[in-house]
Amino acid sequence: MHWIKGEPVIVHNVLDTSCLSWDPMIMVRGLRERMISTVSKGCAQLEVMAMDCLAWCETVVNIHQFFKWYSEGQCYGNMWPKMLKLKDWLPSNLFEELLSCHFVEFITALPFQECSNPNCGFLNLAVKLPKKSLKPDMGPKTYVAYGINKELGRGDSVTKLHCDMSDAVNVLIHTAEVVLSPGSLTKFEDLKNKHIEQDKRELKELFDASLEYNKAEKESRGHDLEKNGVLWDIFHRQDVPLLQQYLLKHYNEFIDVHCAHARQAFT
Prior knowledge:
Blueprint: H1 2-5, H2 24-38, E1 47-52, E2 57-62, H3 63-72, E3 84-87, H4 92-98, H5 100-109, H6 113-116, E4 143-145, H7 182-206, H8 215-219, H9 240-250
Antiparallel strand pairs: 1-2, 1-3, 3-4
Helix pairs in contact: 4-5
């Protein structure tokens, strides 16, 4: 019934029965050992392209260093938290090849196997496609992102609003809490307040001075949220026109990589 209505289903503790460790550093060590044994020692540096969420551009980083910062945190020179993220790493074909045990464990742990199993789910339409047809990538795909409990306002690890081409299963397999030092937290709050004031000034310059600046949203950035590993905003299919109306009305509140407010919107 939930599927027919387009409603999300939340299933807890799907990996509780797993006998494998999903700690990123342990998985990276296993990955490096597998690459050394199958390729050559020179290919085990594991450099990847990570997205810098503030500059919205890609940067090269060693995967070991990436996950070290994931656990310990990393800041720019002005003490603003650095948010990096990896998308589609490892690619699904390499995930199965280089982390075969984790691949099998993950597929087995998926809830509603009849719909979600990419190989033998009898209600999974992709399984029914002819063998020679071009099938969509059924995953699994990994998304790894930094984050802190407080919303930054600029440079947060987010996925842009989009419409999935098919139903999807998202599994939260690991979280790490990064705690800012008191000194870093003070500088962070000062910078964030300056950003908010800058946004207000720029909006008044670009648009009518009477423009209401989503005050409630900006003030909420200073409040602690419940400590969750991830936040998904999911909308009904029938609400697409409402989302389009919202974007057309509030497009000027969105900021690009150069901290400039958007001047036009397309939906």
